[in-house]
Amino acid sequence: MLAAALGRCMDRRLVIVGLYFSVGIANFLSGPSLWFSMPDQVYLILIGQSILGVATGGIFSTMYPEIIAGVDAEEFTTR
Description:
The chain is mainly α. The protein has helices at residues 2-9, 12-30, 42-71. The model has no long low-confidence stretch (mean pLDDT 80).
């Protein structure tokens, strides 16, 4: 809901890029790496999964109008 509201007052593509960046952070937290000396704790995985769920929902709710605009374009082809 927040992402869709941001998409109304900002460029939607910029919001989508920011949400994909947060998905990258969530994936980093969901799989703690020993290379970065991160602790292998359950709370980090839960935080990562929470961020992933919120960001994924935001991506789909923000991207939906972009998909509809692309399909409704006059030069849309099925190739």
